[in-house]
Design a protein that fits this description.
Elements lengths: L1 E2 L27 H12 L5 H4 L5 H8 L2 H6 L4 E2 L7 H4 L5 H9 L6 E8 L2 E9 L2 H4 E3 L7 E2 L1 E3 L8 H5 L7 H10 L3 E2 L3 H4 L5 E2 L20 H12 L6 E3 L4 E3 L13 H9 L13 H12 L21 H4 L4 H4 L29 H12 L5 H13 L1
Parallel strand pairs: 1-11, 2-6
Antiparallel strand pairs: 3-4, 5-7, 8-9, 10-11
Length: 387
């Protein structure tokens, strides 16, 4: 099917499935990495024409999205972009304050064009960036306001509820979006019409992993292209013969996505997973758990190398995973998830079906027929916490 810029009401954050990472500016020194960081944080790829011209989200924000509402659906504010003392006097119940924050470029993942006139500031256009779903903040000022933590999944973000605010959505689509809940997004809903949202995944620690997403359809550059064009609504092209997808631009229309994919990928792959907090695991037990991981539990068969993953894709039945998400992908298989900063992003698996690391270990004990004592399982969990 050829899709010429019609998004069929699918939208933003499939950057869920593995878009990006990041850190503080000091981590990115080279011009290429600085360029990639700027793209990740601030580049909309021209998607304002979708969020503004189609969904009318600029009007929605200007009319009814005050900072308190924005924070309640998981949007974050970059404290480093705020003038000193501004929060002490800001009216957090006024949509005008949200517009002012957009004018300061302080809302993580949202990019607004604000003009000033006799009637005050107007939000003329708005778009989204990679950081919407794949950044959060450290809450150092208050919950939802602090320093950027790029690459961490924003599990309090409710992308479906945000999209559902659009006044032009068909009622059936609005119902679907409202059903997803915080931290979840379906990056294929606008492609196949099914609704089976997956967790917004962490996007750090992908260096050394050949697969960017749960289903391993391609590498980081491939998935960034898919998301920027088919989900964010950016001005670019994406063709996937395995799924019959062809998003094409009219002749003569510049591609605002392709020229940026290399810098974006390089920036992402330069970023490491955050280390576990001091005292968050038992080091002695973790040492014993590592031996179990490498030996009797057979985890290292698939979780190996720098990223603790492998080059092979696996049938759902092989690891006891629900096959529905894989069936909608180009591979119809699952990758071995890179094991990075597991302490930071519960729940686990693509669908969040494992609430804890104990549940993860028990799942594989059952599916793979492992013989593990209670103490061995506990040690294995401590090792996973240490990654």
């Amino acid at each position: 099917m050829v899709m010429r810029r019609q998004l069929l009401w699918g939208v933003p954050c499939a950057l869920a499935a593995a878009l990006v990472l990041s850190g503080h500016p000091a981590q990115s020194q080279s011009p290429t990495l600085n360029e990639g960081r700027e793209i990740f944080r601030y580049d909309t790829f021209g998607d304002e024409r979708f969020w503004t011209d189609v969904l009318l989200m600029n009007e929605v924000i200007e009319r009814s999205v005050d900072p308190t509402t924005a924070l309640s659906v998981g949007l974050k504010v970059d404290a480093d972009a705020l003038p000193p003392g501004i929060l002490a006097t800001a009216d957090l119940k006024s949509p005008a304050t949200t517009v002012a924050l957009l004018k300061l470029n302080a809302v993580v993942g949202l990019k607004g064009t604000v003009t000033s006139g006799p009637a005050g500031d107007r939000l003329e256009r708005v778009g989204i960036t990679c950081a919407l779903c794949h950044s959060t903040v450290d809450d150092s000022v208050m919950p939802g306001i602090g320093r950027r933590l790029d690459g961490r999944p924003n599990r309090t973000l409710n992308p479906g509820a945000i999209i559902a605010l659009s006044p032009v959505l068909p009622s059936a689509a609005r119902t679907v979006y409202q059903s997803w809940g915080p931290g979840r997004y379906d990056p294929r809903f606008n492609i196949d019409g099914l609704s089976e949202p997956v967790l917004i995944p962490p996007a750090y620690g992908l260096a050394g992993s050949p697969h960017a997403t749960f289903t391993g359809d391609g590498d980081v550059r491939y998935w960034n292209n898919y998301v920027a064009v088919t989900q964010m609504g950016g001005q670019g092209e994406f063709v996937e013969p395995r799924l019959g997808i062809s998003f094409l631009l009219p002749a003569g229309t510049p591609d605002l996505v392709q020229p940026k994919l290399v810098a974006l990928r390089d920036y992402q792959l330069s970023l490491a997973a955050p280390a576990p907090p001091s005292g968050s695991f038992d080091a002695g037990a973790a040492g014993r758990g590592r031996a179990i991981f490498m030996g009797g539990a057979r985890c290292a068969t698939c979780h190996s190398g720098r990223a603790l993953t492998d080059d092979t894709l696996h049938a759902p039945a092989e690891t006891g995973m629900d096959p529905r998400h894989a069936a909608r992908s180009a591979t119809r298989l699952y990758r071995a998830t890179p094991l990075r900063a597991l302490w930071q992003h519960a729940p686990y698996f693509h669908d969040g079906s494992a609430a804890t690391l104990e549940d993860v270990v028990e799942h594989y004990r059952r599916v793979l027929g492992l013989t593990l004592t209670r103490n061995q399982k506990a040690d294995l969990v401590e090792y996973l916490k240490s990654l």
